[in-house]
């Protein structure tokens, strides 16, 4: 998965196919697509009914003949043809408009892939991009793309640490001189934390939460208002099936999500153990940069700061860091460090 900045500069489109969201950056236009990686299909005719935000809204509300599917799971394209259809639909007019402005004779695409992704998974990502008309696909490690997108000096001879908190996984790495020195993937992301919240309500309140009520709960937990000790949550009673509202203690929910988050803190330790001591010393001052949508998870930043005793910062717009990083490399905004061989 090593690709040169020269090859990336020849690309005109960059894609981040995530388990939760799909983002697309067009050269000269910026981020043009940021939609859920979801498609709704009529299983009788096979027709695509909706993609993106509309398809996500349909989750849990469809009749039997409509199925809401997620073609990307754990950062891996599990259904290539559905991913191609979804991406074509999401891009549709954007690509046509870009082609009118400036002809794209041979569509070269840049894409990011999870760290240490298997060759078969890489192939599925490449095939998906061929489906939107790409003739050549350059693959970049999502940890490097996200670090560039956060503005970290990845090409410099100093260590930086990035934590990419996605929906299905959290990837952690130490980078230096444009390469990954040590990395770890923890199988805990936003989805696992959402699941912990759902389980908390099921066990403590005998309430089944609707899938779309977990996000507002996160937003409420991240509120800086110290008075916010409890809130009303609506759901379905586990035994009777009747709709019910319960008043819940927010500290209880915070406690429920601490367990999966602790696994993420352990991942930092694992990366540091594989790192040369000189680089660890660099990191003591610079700290950890959080990127990815789940970086906004309430309490994660504080827990990491307490668990590692290192400075922790959240990137500006952490959710789109990876695609922004690909975009910056495509636009030629990242300068490689020239190391000229010394004369004998
Ligand atoms: N404000 C927020 N508070 C808490 N969680 C959030 C917030 N915004 C997004 N998330 C979580 O972030 C996750 C999506 O992150 P992101 O968009 O980086 O994932 P992805 O790149 O699609 O996933 P992956 O990298 O695993 O393929 C979701 O699980 C979502 O619940």
UniProtKB/TrEMBL annotation:
Highest taxon, organism lineage: Bacteria
Pfam families, A to Z: MreB_Mbl (PF06723)
Gene Ontology terms describing biological process: cell morphogenesis; regulation of cell shape
MF term (GO), any: ATP binding
Coiled coil feature spans: none
Main localization category: cytoplasm
One cellular-component annotation, GO: cytoplasm
Record's subcellular location: Cytoplasm
Residue positions binding ATP: 293-296
Keyword terms, alphabetized: ATP-binding, Cell shape, Cytoplasm, Nucleotide-binding
Subunit note: Forms polymers.
Main function: Forms membrane-associated dynamic filaments that are essential for cell shape determination. Acts by regulating cell wall synthesis and cell elongation, and thus cell shape. A feedback loop between cell geometry and MreB localization may maintain elongated cell shape by targeting cell wall growth to regions of negative cell wall curvature.
Similarity remark: Belongs to the FtsA/MreB family.
HAMAP family, per database record: MreB (MF_02207)
Record's protein name: Cell shape-determining protein MreB
Source organism phylogeny: Bacteria, Bacillati, Actinomycetota, Actinomycetes, Kitasatosporales
